[in-house]
Amino acid sequence: DAGITQSPRYKITETGRQVTLMCHQTWSHSYMFWYRQDLGHGLRLIYYSAAADITDKGEVPDGYVVSRSKTENFPLTLESATRSQTSVYFCASSESKVTTNEKLFFGSGTQLSVL
Amino acid sequence: GIQVEQSPPDLILQEGANSTLRCNFSDSVNNLQWFHQNPWGQLINLFYIPSGTKQNGRLSATTVATERYSLLYISSSQTTDSGVYFCAVEGGNKLTFGTGTQLKVEL
Questions:
Q1: Which of A47, A53, B13, B99 is most exposed, with the fewest beta carbons within 10 Å of its own?
Q2: For B101, which residue in chain A has the nearest alpha carbon?
Q3: Do A48 and B100 touch (CB under 8 A)?
Q4: A62-67: Cβ within 8 A, 24+ apart
Q5: Looking at beta carbons, which residues of chain A come within 8 Å of B49?
Q6: A54 vs chain B: nearest CA distance in angstroms?
Q7: Domains contained in chain B, CATH given
Q8: Are strands B101-106 and B10-14 parallel, antiparallel or unpaired?
């Protein structure tokens, strides 16, 4: 039971480059989420998706693009990376809306450094 | 949006001690969860507890929804309990996280 996996685990890039972080889940969960974790801010929601081809902005979406062509995959793209996007990125999934009694499950995270 | 405050921000315990972590939130919620982030960064869901009390081994949680707070109790703490504990509450169909309590359990 693989659960939810993220790749790569670590990534170093330069400002202005495009970077894609991958997220794959094997549970067939409808909802998927991208969070970034920074000191002093906890986890902040970037984007989320309720189903394939349905995505919506979270708290800090600027500079990020997402897609969800298949239920199991939810890639996050930084179109032109900036140093302020240096962070740890977590993908998460849940079976249905978080307004119901559904738990949220996280991947292991991607540590991204933008030089 | 909904505000989530956790206290204390940092806590150091001797192994075997008990502790209480608090989460205050600014509005009524349908979903509240507690997470533990271990020293390797992995986030683990501990409890889904929008109201009432739940227990899982040495950990228990109580949420008093009418007073907008939740408590996480850790009894007989062990070094493996070290890490950051996050409270997250539902607001606008998404979870909003507090900034966490950093716990260190020493021998």
A1: A53
A2: A42
A3: no
A4: A64/A34, A66/A34
A5: none
A6: 14
A7: 4-106 (2.60.40.10)
A8: parallel
